[in-house]
Structure formats: C-alpha cells, structure tokens
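Sequence, please.
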C-alpha cells in the first residue's frame, strides 16, 4: 500500500531527528560533553550553565558555521 510506504519513510526521518535532538554535545566553553537541547535552537551546558544558539535539532549546523553565539551573562535582569 502506498500509505504504508510513506509512513515508514516519515518515521525514519523522525527517528534520526530525535537522536540528534537527544544527543549531548561538547561545550565550547568548558569542553565537557554536557550540552543538551533546551528549546528550539537553544542549547544549555549542564556543567557550566552556558547557553548557546545552534541548529534546531543538532548543536552543529555545519562546517564553517559562524552563527553560534553565547547567550550567557543575562541570568539576573
Ligand atoms: Zn560548559
């Protein structure tokens, strides 16, 4: 059936996005592997508490990317 084939492909795409979303990444600040996804394109280091923007579903959006910037230092306003 056509509908079954489409369903399988969508599920595979969702699975790979989910893995990236749940993976941990190295913190550019403290170099520990404890950066986790906090929200849409927001990543937080569980070790030093630094916040970063990145890709929506993975911390690195590609080689040579320069859009990543720190959001730290705005805790108490
Ligand atoms: Zn850190």
């Amino acid at each position: 059936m056509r509908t079954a084939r489409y369903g399988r492909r969508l599920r595979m795409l969702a699975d790979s996005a989910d893995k990236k979303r749940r993976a941990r990444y190295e913190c550019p600040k403290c170099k520990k592997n404890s950066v986790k996804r906090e929200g849409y394109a927001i990543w937080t280091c569980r070790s030093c508490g630094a916040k970063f923007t990145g890709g929506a579903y993975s911390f690195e959006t590609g080689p040579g990317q320069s859009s990543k910037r720190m959001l730290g230092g705005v805790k108490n306003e």
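The first helix runs from residue 2 to 22.
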